[in-house]
Amino acid sequence: MPSISLKTPSASYDVTLGTSLLKTLRQRITRATGSRTSRIFFVTSPALWKLWGEAVTESFESATVLFLPAGESHKRFASVEKLLEQLARNGADRDSILVAFGGGVVGDLTGFLAAIYMRGIRVVQVPTTLLAQVDSSVGGKTGVNLAAGKNLVGSFHHPVAVIADIDVLQTLPKNELRAGLQEAIKSGVIRDPKLFSFLEKNADKVLAGDTKALQTVVDRSLRVKADVVNQDELENGLRMILNFGHTIGHAIEAATKYTVLLHGEAIGWGMIAAIRLAEQRGAMSEKDAKRVVDLIHRYGPLPAFKAKAERLVELSAGDKKNRGGAKRFILPTGIGTVEIVTDVTEDELLAATSAMLQEMSAMTKTKKQVKR
Ligand SMILES: NC(=O)c1ccc[n+]([C@@H]2O[C@H](COP(=O)([O-])OP(=O)(O)OC[C@H]3O[C@@H](n4cnc5c(N)ncnc54)[C@H](O)[C@@H]3O)[C@@H](O)[C@H]2O)c1
Ligand SMILES: O=C(O)C(=O)C[C@@H](O)[C@H](O)[C@H](O)COP(=O)(O)O
Ligand SMILES: [Zn+2]
To answer: Which of 246, 248, 250 to mutate to test the pocket of ligand 2 (most atoms within 8 A of CB)?
Structure first.
C-alpha cells in the first residue's frame, strides 16, 4: 500500500502502514530523523512494553524507556511533569527523539512532552491501538485533560514520522479494538461512504482481527484524516468535521471523570446523540440514521454510564469548537457528508442527548448492554 503523506504549513511527514514493521523500526526512525539524533527515548506503558518491548528494542543499541501508567486518567499534567523531570535527569537534549509507543493516551501525552521539552523536540508516533492507528497518531493534536474538560490543554505538534504496524493489534483487548472502530465509523460517516460500506459488509472479519481487513480500515481512515488535516491544520474550519460525535462524547468522558468509558465508546454515544439531532432537524433521513446507529451498535456493545442530559449539555458549553458564545456542531447529512452548524439551541441539544440516554437505558433493560 502506498504511504500516506501529511503536508501542512508547519510539517511534512509520511505514515508507513503495514506488517512486520517493528523488526525494522530503528532503520525507519533513523531514515525519518536523520543523523542529527543524539538519543532515543521511548515513552510507553508497562504492560504493553512487557508484550512488545523485546521485539521493539532488538535493533536498538541503546534506548531509554520511560513509563506512563495505562489509562485515560493518567493523561494529566501531573504525568507530564514527572516525565519531563525524567527526560532532564536522563540527559535528553534538543537532538533527542521521543518515540510514543502506545495508544492515543501515550501518543497525545508524548506529543505534548515533545512540544514543550526544551521548547520543542522531535517525536515519532508508533501507534499500537486501532484507535491510535486510525486517528490519534496523525495530525499533531497533543495534550492532556483537565477536570473541567477533555484535551483542554495542549499544542499542535506533528510527529516527524508515523509507523503503524498492524501486527501489534494481535494483543489488543477486544473492547479496545471495538472502541477504535468507532473512530473508523466516524471517518466513514464524515467523508468516506466506501469505508462505511466496508465496515458494514466485513464486520465479522474486522472484529475477528483479520489483518487484511484491519489494514483496509486503517488505510482508509488515515486517508480521511490526512486529507482533512492537509487542508486545515489548525482546525479553523474543515478540520472540525473530525470532531463528529465528540461534542457530547467529550462531555460524557468528563462527566464520568475519564474512568467509565473508553474514548471510542464515548464517541459512539456522542455520534448517536448527533444523529438524533440531525434527524430532529430533518438533516438526515431515517434510513441513513438507522444505518449509522446500527453500525455503531454492531461494533459495540457501548457500555452504559450514568450522567444527566442537562449535565452533558452544560459540559458541552466548554467545547473548543465554540467561539464567541456560538456553539458549533457537526451534523451528518448522509453517509459520507456532514455540515457544520452554529444555530443549535440548548433545547434541541437537550432533546437529542435525552433521546440517546433513553436508548441506552432501554438497551440496559433488555440486557443488550454491558454495565461499567
Ligand atoms: N490526537 C488526536 O488526534 C486524537 C484522536 C483520537 C483520540 N485521541 C485520544 O486518544 C486517547 C484514547 O486512545 P486509545 O483508545 O488508544 O486508548 P489508550 O491509549 O488508553 O490505550 C488503550 C489500552 O490498550 C493498551 N494497549 C495499547 N496497545 C496495545 C496492544 N497492542 N496490545 C495490548 N494492549 C495495548 C494500553 O496500554 C491501554 O491500556 C484519548 O485520550 C483520546 O482523547 C487523540
Ligand atoms: O484530529 C482531530 O482534529 C480530531 O478531532 C480527532 C478526534 O478523534 C480526537 O479525539 C481529538 O483529540 C479531539 O480533539 P479536540 O480538539 O476536540 O480535543
Ligand atoms: Zn476522538
So the answer is: 246
